Amino acid sequence: MKIWHISDTHMLHEQLVIPDGIDVVVHSGDASNYRDPYLNESQLIRFLEWFAKLSIPCKIFVPGNHDTSMEMGLVTKDFAKSLGIEVLINEELVINEVRFWGSPYTPTYGDWAYMKSRQKINRVWDFIPDDVDVLITHGPPYGVLDSTYGYNNKPELAGCSALMKRVVKINPKLMLFGHIHSVDDIRNSGTRTLSNLQTVFSNGSCCDDGKMNAITSGGNILFVKKEDNK
After folding, report:
1. pTM, whole model, 2 decimals?
2. How sure is the predictor about 182, in pLDDT bands with cuts at 50, 70 and 90?
3. Residues 20-45: pLDDT tens digits?
4. In this structure, are residues 222 and 200 in contact, taking their beta carbons and an 8 Å threshold?
5. Which of 90, 77, 139, 136 has the alpha carbon at shortest distance from 112?
6. Contact 189, 144 (CB under 8 A)
């Protein structure tokens, strides 16, 4: 199975070059921009209509903190489903025996959608199945492609430590996320592996902080072999 992973397109999706031969496209959140859900609604609908027209058999969308109109219920999963798009909000989808599970939640940072405190977010990760093959979250686990500058302009690792603990325990084949963009001197978009895990980590963010008028990464292409399933 050939997967194209994109994230954090922030209404620049039409600049993307669509790769050939993709079986599943996964967008892991922040398709839109506005915090106000009523302004956000038309943006998210515009993205979903574009997403639906891609010549790719299976389409998965996991919302992000900027996709406020979906959290508010102005844009629904049923609407996306009518376009042929599967939206995953703390739930599983099986495609050709490959098990996907997706969640939009990230640790609280500002006042956006799908956020929980770092003290409580582990309750979300407890629902991740032990036998998931492809784990999709909007935000990264702690310590993997999550470097950024905080409010005080000092470097920090912004990922979720509770999520990382869960990933280490279940060891999925792929973990797809975004949320933390690259900046001029920090490159987060791309893939990484760790020596103690089989998991391939993918930060699919397509925009760089400070350069939000152009696509700076075309996402990542990954593979899952059906015969290797758990």
Report:
1. 0.96
2. very high
3. 999 999 999 999 999 999 999 999 99
4. yes
5. 139
6. no
Average pLDDT in the 52-77 region?
A: 98
d(CA 176, CA 6): 9
CB 31 within 8 A of CB 64: yes
Terminal alpha carbon distance of the chain? 15
| Farthest CA pair distance, the chain | 48
Nearby residues of 150 by Cβ (< 8 Å), 6 or more positions away = 156, 158
Report which of 148, 204, 212, 194 is spatially closest to residue 25, judged by C-alpha positions: 204
- Per-residue tokens: 200: 């391939």
Instruction: Report the amino acid identity of residue 157.
Output: L
DSSP per-residue letters across 91-124: EEEEETTEEEEEE--EE--SS-SSEE-TTTTHHH
Distance (Å, whole) CA 200 – CA 177: 11
